[in-house]
Amino acid sequence: MAVDLVLASPVAMTVLWGPDLIQLYNASYSAIAGPRHPQALGQPTRECWPEVWDFTAPIYEAVLHGETRSFQGQLLLLARHGVPEEAWFDLAYSPLRDDDGNNAGILVVVTETTRQVLAERKVASEIDRQRRLFEQAPGFICISSGPEHVYVFGNQAYERLIGHRDYIGKTVRAAMPEIEGQGFFELLDKVYATGEPFVAEHLPASIQGSPGGPSEERFVDFVFAPVIDDAGRVSGIITQGHDVTDAYRAREALLDSERRLRDVNAELERRAADRAIIEATSLAREAQLRSILEAAPTAVIVVDDRGMILEFNPAAEYLWGYAAGDVVGRPVSMLTGPEEHERLIAMIARQPLPGEHGAGRAPEAAFVLTRDGRRLAIEVSVGRARTPQGNLVTIFCRDISERMASEQRLSELGAELAHVSRQRVMSELASDLAHELNQPLTAASNFQAAAGMLIKGGESSERVSDLLDMSGEQILRTGEIIRRLRDFLTKRDIEMQSVSLASTVRDAVDLVLFGAAQFNTRVVNLLDPAQDAIFADRIQVQQVLVNLLSNSLEALYETPAGMGEIIIESRACEGGMIEISVSDNGPGLPPRFHEQLYSRFVTTKEGTAMGIGLSISRRIVEAHGGTLVAENRPEGGAVFRFTVSAPRGLEE
User: Which secondary structure element, helix H or strand E, spans residue 638, and what is its range?
Assistant: First the structure.
């Protein structure tokens, strides 16, 4: 009877019967089975769907014991077409009884929602894309919902216009009470009621520049446009426009100047000498502009729309090494290397005219080629103007080669200083290292001598082999100590990658706590095994650990043998970071050194210590995006804590 119900149902169903859960399903389910149909018919479900058996097996066991199970929007990885692919389902599992009333099978009702989920994701992605576009728009945009005009969105330009006040979720009337009586509320109501947009240009608005501050007169170009829902009804209003206050006032000032100029010209026309006066004024302005261009400390190049050089000031002559007469009338591309030609022309072509969208672009970096073949890095700003003779483009260039070289040198000096620090640390440990290397080498020599004596005495080969194996282990131990020292001292570029914190700590401990130190001091490892991976330069983090461990060991020097303790801990913290701490039960930090602890050449150690270890350690940690702090423990001793990124926290 259950099989008849399944076959007649328009909903995808399958019956899993017997100990092997043999599949019997209807036509709708065959579409879900895909290429596995018809072989899946009569096949055990584990053989048909092995890739989801870990998910379904416990469900089947529960249902065969009389329980029911259901899932909404369940994600499964199915290899229906040869490769794993994501698919979503609504699933319902119910037990089926045989003639004796025993649970002998399972009824599975399946609704695939993959298309719906992907469609919803696509819609969400499109909404997010539109929101980002709105956010990046140069003009102001806001969206209100409902007849009360409740704010649901506003971009940064809109927030600047209304003074960065708290407005999302409030009505326009509640958020902007100062515009009462200016007609804006009535216009919003009309657009919402009629569904017809309203467009305005240079409309004055009195708006508070900051919450509770005085109102300022602004001029705006804007449109109130209705938002239509799927049913064809107005559900809100989108406002888009530009704050044109500066442009409006400049235009008004220009118009006023033009009116006054017309009056002056009319007066001059009534005088016999008006033409001479106008010509003299024009010549004076041209001479003034020429003097400004000649005296400008920044290289200035004026080109036309074709990219032909019209002006080349003395600063540009000094930068490129060309005389103005050598370049005027020639294409501006002659000033760049071949690889920069197209980029420079595109930079000029995309610069808008004043008042157009995108005018006033930020400076861009470029490379140019001087007359003597030197390649310079410059910072380029472009301005464009419309003249009766055509559009002119002014290019302002500033040489930034020295700044870039200085930044590169600072980076190299930082690496040099870190290398010196590592060498300093290892020089302080040289004598103990020699003792540590001598132990395994001496042991290896003794094992080999004993093996030789046994061979001469005719001893069994098994005992001789054991001695030689022990000798080899001691030699390998020596090689491992030397390898760790070489890795630590090697000067190399920073290599940020995912590394094991436990391995990094273990190598640092082995580098520092060898010889007598490992018997006088107890090291407690409390690293979190669930947070082992860090995203960092392994050698540099190891350098920080070696410095902190060396400081702790120094602090425990006068502690009675066996009483010294160093604790190394790690834990996850906010922002995708891992905190590592090194603490000891020594005398703690002297108060007079606490404030200057990270300064260079400040040390609590006597003798030859340089006092740069903690300063470099702090710089290393900060270069990894973390922080390094120190404090005295309430129970005695000092603790140093620093943070580095977990792999996921940095890569995202």
Answer: strand 638-645
How many other CB atoms sit within 10 Å of the CB of residue 151? 22
Distance CA 620, CA 319 (A): 38
Q: Which H, E and C letters describe 362-426, residue by residue?
A: CCEEEEEECCCCCEEEEEEEEEEEEECCEEEEEEEEEECHHHHHHHHHHHHHHHHHHHHHHHHHH
> What residues pair up with 644 in beta bridges, in sequence order?
578
Nearest Cα neighbor of 306 from 367, 392, 368 is: 392
205 half-sphere exposure, CB direction, 13 A CA radius: 25
β-strands 521-526, 564-573: how paired? parallel
Residues 6+ apart with CB under 8 A from 479: none
Contact 450, 459 (CB under 8 A): no
Question: Token match 């870039």: residue?
Answer: 404
Rounded Cα distance between 599 and 592, Å, is 13
Residue 376 is predicted with a pLDDT of 80
Joined tokens for residue 569: 């801990």
pLDDT in tens, 136-169: 777 899 999 999 999 998 898 898 888 888 899 9
Determine which helix (DSSP H) or strand (DSSP E) holds 109, and give its type and residue range.
strand 103-112
**599 pLDDT more than 90:** no
Q: Which whole-number Å values give the CA distances from 139 to 157, 221, 358, in the listed order?
A: 6, 10, 10
Which single residue is written with the structure tokens 């009337």? 173
The mean pLDDT of the chain is 80
The pLDDT value recorded for residue 301 is 85
Q: Is the dihedral of CA 550, 555, 560, 564 positive or negative?
A: negative
Q: Are 609 and 603 in contact (CB under 8 A)?
A: yes
Task: Classify residue 604 by its DSSP letter.
Answer: S
Strands 103-112 and 12-17: antiparallel
Q: Which residue has the higher pLDDT, 270 or 397?
A: 397
How far apart are alpha carbons 239 and 220 in whole angstroms? 11
How many CB atoms are located within 10 Å of the residue 395 CB? Answer: 24
Number of CB atoms found within 10 A of residue 313's CB = 21
Q: How far apart are CA 310 and CA 293, in angstroms?
A: 12
**Residue 420 CA to its chain's centroid (Å):** 32
Cis preceding linkage at 38, omega within 30: yes
The DSSP result for 590-631, as a single string, is -HHHHTTTTSTT--S--SS--S-HHHHHHHHHHHTT--EEEE
